[in-house]
Amino acid sequence: MDADGTILSDIVLSQLDDHRPYGGVVPEIAARAHVEHLDAIITRAMSDAGLDYADLSGIAATAGPGLIGGVMVGLMTGKAIALARKKPFVAVNHLEGHALTARLTDQVGFPYLLLLISGGHCQLLEVTGVGAYRRIGTTIDDAVGEAFDKTAKLLGLGFPGGPAVEAAAARGNPAAVALPRPLAGTDTCNFSFSGLKTAVLHAVRDAGLLSEAGRADMAASFQAAVGDVLADRAARAMTQFALRHPGPHTFVVAGGVAANQALRSRLATVTAAQGFALVVPPVRLCTDNAVMIAWAGVERLRLGLSDDFTAPPRARWPLDAAAAAAGAKA
Ligand code: KG4
Ligand code: ZN
Fold first, then answer.
1. What is the CATH number of domain 110-280?
2. For the whole prediction, is pTM greater than 0.85?
3. DSSP assigned state of 210
4. Pocket test for ligand 1, best of 100, 257, 260 (most atoms within 8 A of CB)
5. Per-residue pLDDT tens for 114-135?
6. Quick check: helix, strand or coil at residue 253?
7. How do the domains of the chain map onto residue ranges?
8. Ligand 1: residues within 6 Å at CB?
9. How far is the CA of 43 from the centre of ligand 2 (A)?
């Protein structure tokens, strides 16, 4: 990526086929795949960009949070290049990559309200600057992407679950199965998805052998429940945000689950009703990618922020350390 955010190369190597036989991500396979493929991907990215290492003004690599094997491989590789070429190094928080993408795609200014929905997280954050995040809500149990993946598994829709549930839901009736809206209407901005997951499990069990149409109805009903919960919690957060910050207000949705078109339109309705502008990056930049990490690196280098080579790989790394220390799940 250029210093002005022009994307010079955008390679995503999916490991999904390696993990599919196991119905989920296997940490050991993920770590090995990083070792096997990373060098070739970096070489290809440099050639796509038409650059030599000497042309680079800095190196950014993910330092967490995530499965530690893959994080270690990427972080060590990034440090090695920076050390050999004497370039500034930036250890990027994966979640910050998601959080700042809207500034790359839509030039969103600070502050904004962020809904971060991915395989490992479901959080509402006030973003007031690079590195300045205040968490105002989080899941007290499962992440929303996890709920999609588990529902897909229950319905036999395969892996990864999110896109499979979305496709099935498009053919189903969202009112077919009565499912709960956990924590909706309560006076925090927190989320809970484990009860919804259990309700789907019971509904599937009660239904017996599901037809294709039955599975579509179940997927649509699940997705509608998720949409209602996200919309309810987001509306509450928008009200709070508007009290603290003068307008105009922007609501950003990011993370892999933000790729879901039905959830996007559900959130668009509530955002408009609250008088906020909605920004959701294109699907390709919502699901995990290297562009967002490069962009977070650009943002940090612009501010003169870089890291030394002692920056550790981290399995857990909350964006808002103060909120994480207070107890709720990061
Ligand atoms: O951000 P991401 O690519 O990786 C993490 O950082 O976790 O998010 C992955 C999650 C997975 O749980 C996946 O099932 C979900 O995002 N996801 C979706 C869709 N595409 C990906 N969930 C719902 N609908 C989608 N279209
Ligand atoms: Zn992610």
1. 3.30.420.40
2. yes
3. P
4. 257
5. 999 999 999 999 999 999 999 9
6. strand
7. 16-97+286-326, 110-280
8. 118-120, 145, 148-149, 160-163, 166, 255-257, 259-260, 287-288
9. 23
